[in-house]
Amino acid sequence: MENSADRSTGWFAGGTRYGPSGANFLPYCAMNLRIVFASLSRRLGLPTAVLMAFLQRMPAVKALVASGEYVLSSPASDVLRLSAATAAVLGAVDTLAGATMLSSTAPSPLSAKVGTAVSVAFSVTGTVSSADSWKISGSVPPGLEFAARESGGASVTSGLINATTLYLRGTPTTAGAYTINLLAYNDPNGGSFQSPLFSYTVNVSEDTTPPPPPPPPPPPGSGPAFTQQPASQTVAPGGSATFTASATGGTVTYQWRKNGTAIAGATDSMLTLSNLTTADAADYTVVASSSSGQTTSRFARLIVENPHPGNLTNMSVRAVAGFGGQPLIVGFVASGTGKQILVRAIGPTLGSMFGVPGSLADPIMEVHLPNADLAATNDDWGANGMAAQMMQIFASVGAFVPASQASKDSAAVVTAEGARTVHVNGVGGTNGVVLVECYDLGAGSGALVNVSARNHVGTGGDILIAGFIIGGNTPRRVLVRALGPRLQDFGVNGVLADPQLEVHATVNGQDMVFAANDNWGDEANAAEMNPLTPTLTLPAGSKDSAVLITLPPGAFTAQVKGPGTSTGEALVEIYDVTQ
Known about the structure:
Elements: H1 4-9, H2 30-44, H3 48-55, H4 62-65, H5 78-89, E1 101-104, E2 110-113, E3 118-125, E4 133-138, E5 144-147, E6 155-156, E7 159-162, E8 166-170, E9 176-185, E10 198-205, E11 225-228, E12 233-235, E13 241-244, E14 246-248, E15 253-258, E16 261-262, E17 270-273, E18 282-290, E19 293-296, E20 300-304, E21 312-321, E22 328-346, H6 348-354, E23 363-368, E24 374-378, H7 387-396, E25 410-426, E26 432-440, E27 448-457, E28 464-470, E29 476-483, E30 500-507, E31 510-517, E32 545-551, E33 554-561, E34 568-576
Parallel strand pairs: 2-10, 12-20
Antiparallel strand pairs: 1-3, 3-8, 4-7, 4-9, 5-6, 5-8, 9-10, 11-14, 13-17, 15-16, 15-18, 18-19, 18-20, 21-26, 21-28, 22-25, 22-26, 22-27, 23-24, 23-25, 27-34, 28-33, 29-32, 29-34, 30-31, 30-33
Helix pairs in contact: 3-5
């Protein structure tokens, strides 16, 4: 008959194995066997192997060598191993680990990332019955907890918890190395019979994996139409953020997504996030669905940092200068007084460093005041011993340095108060692709608030592209327009009849379209646009294009082209209209 007292005493005994139901209970460990066999071998003068074969036939020790009941722990002496080998030859041995061990669904150390969910199950092996309770101590990573269930139910980060299988679950919020100590008990609420102390390490690192790029805008007419888009925002840690969207087109349902993954239970037109941590920083979109299909909103980026408002720190235009003998004219506006602006016209370096075909070999640049007076001019940026000084200025704003100090690119520093225009031609009447850039050097009050360029819009690499950079860590509200038909009112011939506008950015190494428009009146917030530019409004029903959008910090381009192979004159404009 089985000895229940011995079974209790030996619940966590290392090296113990119990026989099948109905067998005699003999809680011998490997050390017991070594002592017994060594003693008998010396007294009887028999080799241990012979002794094992002899003892197999004795009823008193039959349970020790019957199949499945022979105890062998590691390390074992050579004598015991020889005895075991003999028993194996006689068909009487089953190998057995026997010691109480911690079993987990993920080995220690566990590698985890901030913001990525963790779920690990723990149990004990080598015992006659399962654990009924556990004691947790040590250091548990913030954001993780222990529970008796994989989800739901009570949870703890230290102390006792009743559980057979113990679950470590949650989402880490703080990077670091954490060591957790676990004790298992045979009874609920602890008890006198406990396991050895087990240690489990969790190494939490910051998640450096960039979020997946936001999905591209859906084709028109494929689902509900958004009348309100969610907007990017920056919120301090511990604060709250609310994203709001609205769509029409039948009975509309909503599903919010974080970095492209659906958020459980987030099915209202409004998404509120509270007690924000860096784990909440992401790109959020909402999918509006109806019987006609689905439409995904523009994405809104949530930045969880103490806000540091910025402005437009850089504006640029890439186009063909000298087409038809006409210069490329770029305008910019700086608010405040005494604003120092670095202006550059990059031609040959576009080809040598960036592989742009047809780049302008030798641009010459002029900066004009509103009354057309000349404010500055430059042909070669490194001429007249200016290379070292200009290179320092380039570095101060993060502008790339031309491939050679002898390059034919142009650059100058001007003081801007209000509007200025930059005229770029090719020396000797040449033409080619050129990049005109305006950088805020920080000196003086105010900021860059507008850039515009009028030029011939071609196809392929000859489309009209304007770039801008939003500094700081807070979003800015930006109005971007592409005018074609409206230019006819100013006597411009050969306009681009139907300009198409796209706002691009590079996300995770991929070029993504943040916003697109063909006809400005189709935008849900079209009524807000004309009051922002009272001196140059757009007529209702015109085929000029525009978007009014809140963008997160970063670099963007506004690209203007015509449908198919159509070409013509167009004006691209970028306004910072943040209130």
